């Protein structure tokens, strides 16, 4: 099925399909609801699903890291989900900011804070990827050791 497009189904098929795929953002366009409204509802539901999917992957890696197990490398499905999530977040943030007014726009469009330490390292030819400021496995608090 092509994403973000309406598709007709007979009632028996629609029930089965919605039962299996509704959690991922597939919705029914109810009578009296415009296509745009149904699409917005589906995008919101899809964004919630993708957010949950990406967070579950991150949580599993955090659990594995805490247990000194190897981390899972992201697969194509994870990368694609993150790309789609970011696109939906920016699209829906614009709509929500318009609904909520100017204060919401200021909150949703936070200024990017410059990483001074990373900029200084780049001046010496050292990228943050090569010499991270917080290496993996380093505790976030001082253990007194």
What can you tell me about this protein's structure?
There is one protein chain. This protein has 145 residues and is mostly helical. The chain has a domain at 11-111. Helix content is 57%, strand content 0%. The chain has helices at residues 11-21, 35-66, 76-100, 102-108, 116-123. Helix 3 (76-100) runs antiparallel to helix 4. The longest helix has 32 residues, at 35-66. The termini are far apart. The model has no long low-confidence stretch (mean pLDDT 78).
N/C terminus separation:
57 Å
Q: What is the 3D form?
A: flat
Q: Which H/E pattern describes the elements?
A: HHHHH
Count of extended strands = 0
- Write down the overall mean pLDDT: 78
Q: Count the helices. How many?
A: 5
Biggest β-sheet: count, sense, barrel?
A: none
Strand residue percentage: under 5%
Helix content: 55-70%
What does the radius of gyration come to?
A: 21 Å
Low-confidence stretches: none
What's the structural blueprint in terms of helices and strands?
Layout: H1 11-21, H2 35-66, H3 76-100, H4 102-108, H5 116-123
What is shown here, in short?
With 145 residues, the protein is mainly alpha-helical. It has helices at 11-21, 35-66, 76-100, 102-108, 116-123.
Structural key phrases:
145 residues, mainly alpha, 57% helix
């Amino acid at each position: 099925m092509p994403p973000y497009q309406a598709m007709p189904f007979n009632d028996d098929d629609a029930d089965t399909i919605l039962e299996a795929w509704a959690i991922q953002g597939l919705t029914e366009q109810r009578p009296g609801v415009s296509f745009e409204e149904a699409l917005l509802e589906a995008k919101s539901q899809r964004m919630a699903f993708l957010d949950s999917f990406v967070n579950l992957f991150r949580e599993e890696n955090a659990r594995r890291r805490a247990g000194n197990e190897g981390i899972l490398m992201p697969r194509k499905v994870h990368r694609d989900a993150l790309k789609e999530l970011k696109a939906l977040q920016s699209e829906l943030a614009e709509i929500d900011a318009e609904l909520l007014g100017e204060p919401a726009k200021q909150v949703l469009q936070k200024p990017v804070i410059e990483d001074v330490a990373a900029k200084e390292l780049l001046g010496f030819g050292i990228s943050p990827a090569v010499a991270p400021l917080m290496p993996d496995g380093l505790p976030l608090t001082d253990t007194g050791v």
